[in-house]
Amino acid sequence: MTRFGKTVVEGALGRTKPVIRWGLGHALPRAVLLRQARRGDLQGRLVDDAAAGRDLTGLFDEIRAAGPVARTRFGWITTHHTAVREVLSSDDFRTGVLGSDGSALGRLMEWSAGEYLHPVRPPSLLAVNPPEHTRYRKLVTGVFTARAVEQLRGRVQAIADEVLGRIDPAGPVDLVESYCGLLPVTVISEILGVPAADVGKVLSLGAAAAPSLDLGLGWRTFRDVETALAEFDTWLGEHLDHLRRHPGDDLFSRLVAARDDGVGLTEAELKSTAGLVLAAGFETTVNLLGSGIALLTERPDQLAVLRERPELWSNAVEEVLRHDPPVLLTGRVAVRATEVAGVPVPRGAVVTTVLAGANRDPGVFTDPATFNVTREGARNHVSFGAGRHHCLGATLARMEGEIGLRTIFDRFPALALSPGSRRRETRILRGYEYLPATLA
């Protein structure tokens, strides 16, 4: 083949790879799940109903009634609180993505993978397993300690005040765009040590990259996500070089310098951690804030309790996380034949743990469908997962949720939602895409 011919072929293959990534990672799973939903499959119905914004309470109960771990066309599924914790904490299971089993499909996925890092693919903390995960997480948690995050409280409060101060209370406002999104991504920018001149760029990239954590994206959204991740990867390489030469007092500078027995994180691991902080930290917290605002404005009796007893705000955040968590479900792959809650599960089986369903388990939560800011044991939810992959940003999310919700209701006590709010058409991520309101 001539050099020209080789260039043409390579170019054609390069253009084909994104289509294959989208087809295998989004279009095919979406089509299969939809077809099985029409046939009554529990997992297919769950994902389809979630994307349509339907109330999932009855379906959670139906899945629970099918057994501690129910069989579906895709593997196993559970909404039992005990079974969810068992799967997420057991060494018999590992994280994994479609085609991560070395099969022909897996090799095709690997061949078509993008050159940039992705928050749900290795070396992301969400996607690696021991022993790599053990070393990796030790270094990260050594920097993102609860104490280090708590020291950000004053700055998070200042950012919330600044963002709200820029909103004109006289006119209608979309709270997702004007507040729920701006607060977490501004905090993330400071954690990553983003220079003031680049904050706007990171804000836009964070919003665009966040759907990377979801399943069944449409082609246009998928391409927007890939473009954002590629741009962030390029920017991050330059930013890391800057931090090595001029370290700051931000947490990411500390992570760049962190060592365990003289060994730090690789360039890929540092980039992956930053990408995960950007995508996961943005998406989960914007959903937490939006859902919390909606729940409290729709239930003025609960908001009245918080105004009388402000010490309950932290518990209210736990109840928001329990009642309407930012993430619907997560999955694990069995590395060996095992049992879950007494149910045999074969090696290689995929078990879907429905976090939102476990949070409605009546065996753990009294009257689970009711939103109650005074609920005892609200913190027993599994919205941050469990086991070795328990959410690294849980402490920060809780703080942002508490400060963000308390501050907006303190500043705008007459806040009321307007007609036209819209839930996200996502299958795994849960939250509001549009939340119109009046503030005065």
Automatic annotation (TrEMBL):
Membrane-spanning ranges: none
Protein keywords: Heme, Iron, Metal-binding, Monooxygenase, Oxidoreductase
Leader peptide range in chain numbering: none
InterPro entries in the record: Cyt_P450, Cyt_P450_B, Cyt_P450_CS, Cyt_P450_sf
Top-rank taxon: Bacteria
Keyword Lipid metabolism carried by entry: no
Family: Belongs to the cytochrome P450 family.
Protein name (Swiss-Prot/TrEMBL): Cytochrome P450
Organism: Amycolatopsis heterodermiae
